[in-house]
Amino acid sequence: MSKRSASDRETDGQAFAKASGSGAKRDENEVNDIGEFEDAWEDEIESEEEVVDGETGDGEDGMDVDEVMPAIEESEELPPAPEAFIPGTHVLGKDEILEPDDSVYIMRHSMNVTWPCLSFDVLRDSLGDERQRYPVTAYLVAGTQADQASKNELSVFKMSSLHRTQKDGDDSDSDEEDDDALDEDAILEFRSVPHHGGVNRVRAQPLAPASPLPPASQPYFTATWADNGKVHIWDIRPLIESLDVPGYSWDKSRTNKPAFTINSHGRAEGFAMDWASSGNANPSSLRLLTGDVHSKIYLTTTTPSGFNALSQPFTSHTSSVEDLQWSPSEPTVFASCSADRSVQIWDVRSKGRRSVAGIEPAHESDVNVISWNRSTSYLLLSGGDEGGIKVWDLRNVQKKGTTVLPSPVASFKWHTAPITSIEWHPTEDSIFAASGADDQVTLWDLGVEPDDDEMGTSMNDTPDGARDVPPQLLFVHQGQKDVKEVHWHPQIPGAVLSTALDGFNIFKTISV
Q1: Is the bond leading into 361 cis (omega within 30 degrees of zero)?
Q2: Which of 404, 403, 406, 437 is closest to 420 using CA atoms?
Q3: Per residue in 317-364, pLDDT tens?
Q4: What's the mean pLDDT in 415-438?
């Protein structure tokens, strides 16, 4: 991956400024007391010229005249510049709030939903790849966490009118205004089907890059991990069609009931889940991995007649399986992470359904999430309960039976609470996004290296009381509460979506 110096970055990566409840006070001019007087010559002033002369005569007639006070002007003293809020260094005061700095966002929209969604996935569409023109449209699928099991739903959302963010100081008098410059409210539409039980995780089947959305007659599968121990597979393609075609009526027998339900986990719920496809050779051949809190991983495959849940589990973990990732380059290999602090590497062809390699321990605490780099297939990201992020070179991971513990090629301790989600950029092999329970979404670039000569000071020199900001940290997005998951949009370069207790955010920064 290419390297760039820290000074090449366009921004310090801080998207929110701290706004104080107290501003600068303007200077008030003192006003003299006005005394009463009697104008003895009032009847002799007969014209405007005489009035003017009388006012400007500087008391020639010996009469006391009030001094004309100049208009009170605003003080030329500038208000204090907004202070960049750095988590861990600054603390909001009683009357302070975070205000986004839209000068560092190309696009930023927030959308509220009825019930919070712990998990979502971005859906591919037929609007093209590498989309740069605004407004943009995005589709996603999400599952709810309602206050009653019977109120939960699986929903397909269509976010449209996602305009470029209008910044303060933009020239509104330009004669070349177009749709890109508009700053209108985004539109959120959705179609839902009932889902019994809360949804812990949602994943849509993978579609090959540059491939169009399947026609409405063909399925587009999405899997949900329910909190009652069931894994359901749904066909959501008709829901997408109903969002795009006015008056479209879908067959409820096709959408309102799962196409298949995996009962392999019994009553044990779980969170870990990942799809894989056999690619262009056989795009209909899908594989789905699911892992539960009882340390078991099950594989479900597709056949010409439907889905087939294999009964023998993969068992090497000793605690809850938290996340799963198929290898982007080897169709039989996958990785898992667990609350037992380990990351395991598996091959479905191995006998005994045991892992073939592992990192034990990978973190100080539970390993919550992992992400496999799709461009550089030997790089694996992991995020832990202690807030740490680590990058692993899988070429250094030894097979089972060896005692050599590999070291991460990079390690970051910026987040102050558990990492809840992590994902490599779909095309840039050095960039990734992460979210944490500390209400931060962070963007990172491993290609940034400190350049002491160019910066003028050592990167290790941190002012007293300040927090050391890693040069690889490009951006900190805040404003959401209890962020649960973050994904890049594969067709809108640099666009990031996140879900939290208070709804969805979609944004694109000047950093990526």
Answers
A1: yes
A2: 437
A3: 999 999 999 999 999 999 999 999 999 999 999 989 999 999 999 999
A4: 97
Identify each DSSP E strand in 319-378 by its residue range: 321-326, 333-338, 343-347, 357-359, 367-372
Res. 4: pLDDT tops 90 = no
Residue with tokens 């996958």: 334
pLDDT in tens, 17-76: 544 444 444 444 444 444 444 444 444 444 444 444 444 445 445 555 555 666 655 556
Q: Tell me the three state secondary structure of residue 352.
A: helix
**Structure token digits, residue 43:** 């009847």
Torsion sign, CA atoms 318, 320, 323, 327 = positive
Please give the radius of gyration of the chain, using alpha carbons only, rounded to the nearest integer.
30
As given in the structure block, the two tokens for residue 369 are 């999430």
Q: Say if CB 63 and CB 69 are below 8 A apart.
A: no
First to last CA, the chain: 15
- Tell me which residue of 443, 385, 390, 449 sits closest to 417, measured CA to CA: 385
Q: Residues 463, 73: contact at Cβ < 8 Å?
A: no
Using alpha carbons, select from 427, 425, 460 the residue that is nearest to residue 444.
425
Residues in the chain, overall count: 512
Strand partners, 270: 292
Tell me what percent of the chain is helix, strand and coil, each rounded to the nearest 5.
10, 35, 55
Which helix (H) or strand (E) covers residue 239, if one does?
A: helix 237-244
Question: How much is the mean pLDDT over the chain?
Answer: 84
